[in-house]
From TrEMBL:
Its cofactor is Fe(2+). GO terms for molecular function: dioxygenase activity; metal ion binding. Belongs to the TfdA dioxygenase family. It comes from Trematosphaeria pertusa. Gene3D superfamilies: Clavaminate synthase-like. Signal peptide: none annotated. Keywords: Dioxygenase, Iron, Metal-binding, Oxidoreductase. This is Clavaminate synthase-like protein.
């Protein structure tokens, strides 16, 4: 990396459209991502922790290697894929057919449709997740083209053994541009939101924390979240709420004897609030579908799954109100990096099998644990 103290990068905060009030996201202009200087790297790192989602336009030529290197800026000691090796890929709810780029295995290909050749992968078929495979109640067939849901609000993290990645990057390679869809919450509130079809939606977990009552803030700062072992296999038979923010409790989760062997030392107990390493702001950062127990300040444990989920949903739901959601309107060549420890994100939309969409994604399990609420 050239030791230059100058940078041409300028930062342009995203202006939310009328009616929206989210206060994160920025476009970074003037970066040569294949040849970053030290000063560029410093600006990009600060920008991520200040703006949570940073967007570089016109990165059509970005190589998988450069994508990996830029993503690694935030954690140079990080190594393998953020979700780890899947022990039981067939039963996990995460991309059962995740495609890895042969010459840059930290970068995966996601999207939709049949692709004859891409970055050394041949004859692959990609599938954009549809909410009907995960939500308890789906939008009717006839309304499905015009309407969509938040598929699954989440953090990119294995939540077993490995530490949550600091950043995830997404490059939009091929994007079918079509009409907007109406995103319905279908949770009895009447909430809805117009989103570009196939948008990735983000919310700030800092705002989610700030919206809590003082009592809930205290609870959030002092409570720990225990995640289920092998969470994506554990939750595989369960179904989601219609707002994509956590699961419905019907006793469908797998029991320990139905899971791969459990190493108790690998079970993740994480703070409910994660501190921003630059600003010290607190994020209410909980993976709503993977949570299993809450460990309270006095050591008591709430292990009634229904109750755990009700508490988490009550705390998180205000933070996904329509005006707080930043839905990226993807254009080909867009390269976004998001602060995986400061936002929640979700897929939206649906595509027909013949609609081809290609994205490259990169994240790595972190080399350091998340920062707790105490400075
Ligand atoms: Fe994700």
């Amino acid at each position: 990396m050239p030791h230059s103290t100058t940078s041409n990068i300028t930062i342009h905060p995203i202006q939310p459209p009328k009616g929206s009030t989210y206060d994160f996201g920025a476009e970074l202009r003037g970066a040569d991502l294949e040849n970053l200087t030290d000063a560029d790297a410093e600006i990009i790192k600060r920008a991520l922790y200040e703006h949570q989602v940073i967007l570089f336009k016109n990165q059509h030529a970005l190589t998988p290697k450069a994508q990996y290197e830029v993503t690694r800026l935030f954690d140079p000691a990080a190594t393998g894929y953020g979700h780890g090796k899947t022990l039981d890929a067939k039963r996990s709810i995460l991309h059962p057919d995740l495609k890895t780029i042969p010459h840059q295995p930290q970068v995966q290909v996601i999207g939709n449709g049949a692709v004859a050749e891409f970055e050394g992968l041949k004859d692959i078929t990609l599938k954009h997740p549809h909410h009907k495979t995960f939500h308890k109640e789906a939008i009717s067939e006839e309304d499905d083209r015009e309407n969509t849901r938040f598929y699954r609000w989440h953090i990119d993290a294995a939540l077993y053994d490995l530490e949550p990645p600091k950043a995830t990057s997404l490059l939009a390679v091929k994007v079918p541009k079509t009409q907007y869809q109406n995103l319905r919450y279908d949770d009895g509130t009447g909430d809805e939101l117009k989103v570009p079809r196939g948008s990735t939606a983000f919310v700030s977990s800092y705002t989610m924390y700030d919206l809590l009552s003082e009592e809930d803030k205290e609870f959030a700062r002092t409570t720990k979240v225990q995640y289920a072992p092998h969470p994506y296999i554990w939750m595989s038979p369960a179904k989601s709420r219609s707002d994509g923010l956590g699961l419905i409790s019907e006793g469908l989760e797998l029991s320990p004897c139905q899971l791969p062997p459990i190493d108790e030392s690998k079970i993740k107990v994480l703070p409910m609030c994660w501190r921003n390493p630059l600003t010290n702001q607190l994020a209410l950062q909980i993976h709503p579908s993977a949570v299993q127990k809450l460990i309270l300040a006095d050591g008591n444990v709430i292990d009634d799954l229904k109750q755990v989920r009700e508490i988490v949903h009550r705390m998180q739901r205000p933070g996904i109100a329509p005006e707080l959601v930043y839905p990226i309107d993807w254009e080909e060549g867009d390269f976004a990096i998001f602060h995986n420890r400061g936002v929640l994100h979700t897929v939206t939309g649906s595509f027909l099998p013949e609609e081809v969409r290609i994205f490259r994604q990169c994240n790595m399990a972190a080399s350091e644990p998340v920062l707790g609420p105490e400075v």
